[in-house]
Write a sequence for this structure.
C-alpha cells in the first residue's frame, strides 16, 4: 500500500529543481555532454520525462539547443560540465547570440564551499559568458535554482531573443532542501507577452509611404520567422502588391513560384526602388552595412531591437516591434485608403521579373553542367530540385553554401537553417540533430563543406545512436575554398594554398564506419540517384560529392573582407 507523501517534510535536490523549471518552460529535450558536476540534472530529467541527448562535443550541444529554438519556436537547452565543458560551448552560445536565438546553457561549477580554492575545472564562466548572452549568473542556493532558471528564460526574450547562461555549483545541485522552501514558478505565470505592435503614428506613416510608392520592395529577414509572422508577411505583400526578398530564416516565407517571391534581382531592386522596407535584418556585412540601398530611396526599418534600427545607415522611418503585428497593421491602414497603390505596381513587378529571368537564364547552363569535377552550381541545383515541401534545408560551409544561397529555395517557412551572421562553421550536424528530434516527420538535408563537416562531424555517430536519419551532402574540394580565394587574390597563386588545403577524405566511408549510409559521387548524373538512395535508406547518410576546387561562388569573390 502506497503511503501518502508528507509535503511538509519532502525534500528535493537542485538537479531535480532544474528539471522542474525546464519542464515548466516546455523543454522536452536537453543536449549535453556528461560531467560530474551536472549528473543530478540528468536524474531530474528522467523523472520529468525530458529526453537527454548526449553528444561528443559541447559545441554541438550548444548548436543543437540553438537549432531546436529555431525549429520549434521554444527555447533550447544545453547542459555542460564546468571548465572546458563550458568553454567548449562558448562558440555555440556566441552563434546563438548573433543569430538572435533563445536558448539556455547550463554549466557546472565547483562547489561554493571550494570557491576560489582551485577546485577541479573552476573558471570564471559568468565573466566569460556575459558579453555573448542576454543574461549570465551564478545560482547561489538550492532554494533559488528553479527561480533563477525561469529568470534566465525570461531574459532570453527581452527585446530581440538571445541566449542566457547559468552556472550552478556542484553542491548547490546536489543538495536537498525542503520542497516547501523552494520557489518553483508555474508554467505560464512568470513570462509576459513580448509582442509589440509598434508606434501607431509610425505605422500610419508607413502606410502612407506604401500608398504613394511607385517602386517599393521589402526584405523579409530572420525575425519574420522568429515572430512566426509568415501569414502576416504574405498578406502584406499580396494586399499591397510589393515584391519580396527573403534572407536568413525568412527564406521560405513565400514559396518558389509565388508572384511576389523574388531572389535574383535584389541588387537591382535595392538600386532602383523608391521605397525599401527592411524587416528583421540589421545593416551588417550581409547588407553592405546599408550602403547597398539606393541613396535616394525612402528606407524603413522594422526590428525587435531598438539598438538595431538606424545602425550603420540613416533611415527615414524606424519601427520597433513584432514583424507580424507591424506588417499587419500597416497593410490594414493602407488598405483602408481609396487607392492603396497596388494596381499601378504591376509594371514594377514585371520589370523585376525580367531581371530575374535574365539572371536565371545566364546561370542555367552551369546548373545543368556535365563537367567533371562537378560544378558546384550543378550540385546545388540537384539539391534544390530534390527538396520537397517537408524538407528542412541546412547550410554548413563557406564557398559551397554561398553557391546554395543563390539557388536553393525552401518550399515552406521555417525550412531554411544557416549559422547566421557569426558565420560559424560546424553547425550542420547539430542543427540536423535538433531538427530531426523536434520534427521527426520532416526530412532534413544538410549541405556541408568538407572543412565545415570536419569540425563537428563525429556527432554523426550521435545521429546513428539516436536513430535520427538525415541526408548529408558534402561538397568536397579538399580545401577551405572561401579562404583560398582571398589568399590567391591577395598574395598570388604561389601562396594560395597556405593553411587551407585538406586531405582527400572519403566521408562516405566514414559514414558507413559509424553505421550510416554513405556514397561517393564523381559524375553529376549520379547526384540525384544518390540523393534518392539516401532518402530511402532511413539512416543518417553522407553523400561525398567531389566538386571542382577551381570554381568559386560569386559571393565569395565579392566578399568585403577581400576588398
Amino acid at each position: 500500500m502506497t503511503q501518502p507523501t508528507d509535503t511538509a517534510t519532502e525534500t528535493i535536490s537542485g538537479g531535480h529543481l532544474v528539471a522542474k523549471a525546464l519542464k515548466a518552460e516546455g523543454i522536452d529535450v536537453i543536449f549535453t555532454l556528461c560531467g560530474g558536476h551536472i549528473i543530478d540534472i540528468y536524474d531530474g530529467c528522467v523523472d520529468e520525462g525530458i529526453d537527454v541527448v548526449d553528444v561528443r562535443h559541447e559545441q554541438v550541444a550548444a548548436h543543437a539547443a540553438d537549432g531546436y529554438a529555431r525549429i520549434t519556436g521554444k527555447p533550447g537547452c544545453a547542459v555542460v560540465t564546468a571548465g572546458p565543458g563550458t568553454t567548449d560551448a562558448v562558440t555555440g552560445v556566441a552563434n546563438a547570440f548573433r543569430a538572435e536565438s533563445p536558448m539556455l546553457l547550463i554549466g557546472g561549477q565547483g562547489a561554493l564551499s571550494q570557491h576560489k580554492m582551485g577546485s577541479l575545472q573552476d573558471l570564471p564562466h559568468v565573466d566569460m559568458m556575459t558579453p555573448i548572452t542576454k543574461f549570465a549568473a551564478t545560482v547561489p542556493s538550492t532554494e533559488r535554482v528553479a527561480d533563477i532558471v525561469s529568470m534566465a528564460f525570461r531574459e532570453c526574450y527581452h527585446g530581440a531573443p538571445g541566449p542566457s547562461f547559468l552556472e550552478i555549483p556542484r553542491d548547490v545541485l546536489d543538495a536537498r532542501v525542503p520542497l516547501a522552501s523552494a520557489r518553483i514558478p508555474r508554467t505560464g505565470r512568470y513570462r509576459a507577452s513580448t509582442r509589440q505592435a509598434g508606434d501607431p503614428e509610425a505605422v500610419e506613416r508607413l502606410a502612407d509611404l506604401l500608398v504613394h510608392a511607385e517602386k517599393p520592395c521589402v526584405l523579409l529577414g530572420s525575425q519574420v520567422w522568429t515572430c512566426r509572422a509568415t501569414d502576416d508577411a504574405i498578406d502584406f505583400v499580396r494586399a499591397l502588391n510589393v515584391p519580396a526578398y527573403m534572407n536568413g530564416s525568412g527564406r521560405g516565407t513565400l514559396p518558389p513560384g509565388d508572384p511576389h517571391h523574388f531572389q535574383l534581382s535584389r541588387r537591382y531592386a535595392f538600386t532602383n526602388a523608391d521605397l525599401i522596407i527592411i524587416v528583421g535584418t540589421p545593416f551588417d556585412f550581409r547588407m553592405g552595412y546599408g550602403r547597398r540601398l539606393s541613396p535616394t530611396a525612402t528606407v524603413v526599418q522594422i526590428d525587435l531591437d531598438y539598438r538595431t534600427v538606424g545602425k550603420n545607415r540613416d533611415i527615414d522611418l524606424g519601427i520597433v516591434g513584432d514583424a507580424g503585428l507591424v506588417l499587419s497593421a500597416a497593410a490594414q491602414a493602407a488598405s483602408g485608403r481609396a487607392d492603396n497603390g497596388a494596381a499601378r505596381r504591376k509594371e514594377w513587378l514585371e520589370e523585376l521579373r525580367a531581371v530575374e529571368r535574365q539572371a536565371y537564364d545566364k546561370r542555367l547552363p552551369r546548373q545543368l553542367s556535365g563537367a567533371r569535377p562537378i560544378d558546384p552550381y550543378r550540385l546545388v541545383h540537384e539539391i534544390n530540385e530534390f527538396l520537397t515541401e517537408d524538407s528542412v534545408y541546412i547550410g554548413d560551409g563557406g564557398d559551397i553554401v554561398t553557391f546554395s544561397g543563390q539557388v536553393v529555395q525552401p518550399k515552406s517557412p521555417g525550412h531554411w537553417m544557416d549559422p547566421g551572421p557569426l558565420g560559424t562553421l560546424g553547425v550542420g550536424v547539430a542543427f540536423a540533430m535538433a531538427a530531426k528530434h523536434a520534427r521527426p516527420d520532416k526530412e532534413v538535408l544538410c549541405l556541408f563543406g568538407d572543412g565545415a563537416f570536419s569540425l563537428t562531424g563525429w556527432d554523426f555517430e550521435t545521429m546513428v545512436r539516436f536513430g535520427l536519419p538525415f541526408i548529408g551532402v558534402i561538397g568536397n574540394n579538399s580545401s577551405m575554398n572561401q579562404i583560398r580565394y582571398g589568399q590567391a587574390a591577395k598574395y598570388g597563386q604561389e601562396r594560395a594554398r597556405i593553411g587551407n588545403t585538406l586531405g582527400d577524405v572519403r566521408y562516405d566511408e566514414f559514414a558507413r564506419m559509424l553505421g550510416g549510409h554513405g556514397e561517393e559521387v564523381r559524375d553529376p548524373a549520379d547526384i540525384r540517384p544518390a540523393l534518392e538512395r539516401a532518402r530511402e535508406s532511413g539512416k543518417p547518410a553522407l553523400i561525398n560529392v567531389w566538386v571542382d576546387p577551381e570554381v568559386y561562388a560569386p559571393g565569395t569573390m565579392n566578399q568585403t573582407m577581400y576588398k
